[in-house]
Design brief:
alpha+beta, 4 helices, 33% strand
Length: 161
């Protein structure tokens, strides 16, 4: 295990983007989109950034491939780093998560693109998302996104008064 940091130093990190896709239901309640990969856990959509590709472009491509959805890329929510838990040589992965506003009537389709292994998608309120998601870093991102959206809504109410 002591040799792991030196192994990582010789490999470029993997860059990825993730979506906190959200919408407000007919009653004005916030909902976020979760996906579940085959034999996996509930999580947020994410995927790799191709060399030279802008984050917003990569984010919309990944969201469309995994769920068939399109949306409007908004604020950055968080950036996380971790070591990939794969069988090959470990690599550092850096994922930047963004808010993506999706239309209320948009229909999410699991694994919309051939080759995607997404088996389920669901819209849930943030509290429900917190219960379904196993990974703490993803729960933290959802909580941060909710805080950001609530602050934005509070500010717009204050400005309209």
């Amino acid at each position: 295990m002591s040799g792991q940091p030196s192994l990582l130093a010789h490999h470029k990190p993997i860059y990825a983007v993730g979506a906190v896709a959200y919408r407000y239901d007919a009653r004005g309640r916030l909902q976020v989109l979760l996906i579940k990969k085959r034999n996996g856990y509930w999580t947020l959509p994410k995927g790799g950034v191709h060399p030279g590709e802008e984050h917003a472009t990569a984010l919309l491509r990944e969201l469309r491939e995994e769920t068939g959805l399109v949306g409007i890329v908004e604020d950055e929510v968080a950036q996380v780093q971790y070591i990939t838990p794969r069988r090959r040589l470990p690599r550092r992965k850096i994922v930047t998560y963004y808010l993506v506003r999706v239309a209320l009537d948009a229909i999410a389709i699991p694994g919309a693109h051939p080759g995607e292994v997404i088996e389920q998608v669901c819209w849930v309120r943030p509290r429900g998302a917190q219960r379904r998601v196993k990974r703490k870093r993803i729960r933290d991102i959802i909580a941060r996104a909710e805080t950001c959206l609530r602050a934005r809504n509070d500010q717009s109410v204050t400005e309209s008064q």
